[in-house]
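Task: sequence in, structure out. Protein: DDE-1 domain-containing protein.
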Amino acid sequence: MDSSKSSTSLMYCGSASGHLLYVVYKAEHLWSTWTEGGPPHARYNRSKSGWFDQFCFEDWFQNCFLHHTRHLSGSKVPIGDNLSSHFNASVIRLAQQHDVKFICLPSNATHLIQPLDVAFFGPLKSQWRNILGAWKRSNASMSQALSKDAFLGLLKRLNQQLQTESGKNENLVSGFRATGLYPYNPNKILNKLPSADNETEEENGQRTAAAVSDAVISILSTMRGGKNGEPPAKKRRTRINVTPGKSVSLEDLSASPSPSVTPTPTSVQRQKKQFVRPRSPASNASPSTSSTPCCRSISTASKPQSGKLQKWEGKDDKNQS
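Result:
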């Protein structure tokens, strides 16, 4: 949708015990007022689109992720979706140096195995709508567009409402538990999948229907019956006479005043046979007229001979003419 509003991206990277924050603004330059009054330890960057690109992701990986995981022993495993679009040679090199192993989730599976999608972003978006609505009501006389200067204050309030007094986010902890990542329990995911062996047909159908989103059903309905859910009507077609070896386009046919088309013959037209009787030798035939009889869509049993009866085979013909 066309809009003049600028966009702001947030990178939430959470563990089973907390989360980090990284903010990207849509701008050419970064201004000081865009970094004041925000959540503690948050970092800020900018891009032309307001989305994360390879440069922003590399900066986040080096200054946020590695900064907070260097003291940890063993392998560090960041799990996320769409990470492959952010990788570059520098990120891979840093990951090898610090024993970091990326895991990219499969497409259309984040609602099952992404902890933040399962239990974190839902309450966050709901709370953000309440905060943004309250801000609009208190600033009714001002512009309703949220400026970058006021954005961080609302973002800080959002994080404070989602965290406990100890700074721990219970929704994030619940997300790791519900996906079976920590504590590790693969049955958490397997129990969400439909199983024909342990469920009745009705229970299996209900679970499958819940797993398939309305968007998928809408796409399948459109593919099956068109935009209105009805099969498209068949149009009458005509055969176009095109010179062998030449091509034709829709523009060529539209520009032609009288397009050369040949209607497809019907079954009734195919059954009609036209026969021409041979001229009598005594008739006054023109010099240019051939005495050989002409027939269409029939076969001759014998060659015509002068002064003898001709025998023709045809569907509606007599044996002799």
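The beta strands are 8-15, 18-26, 43-47, 79-80, 103-104, 238-240, 261-263, 299-300, 312-313.
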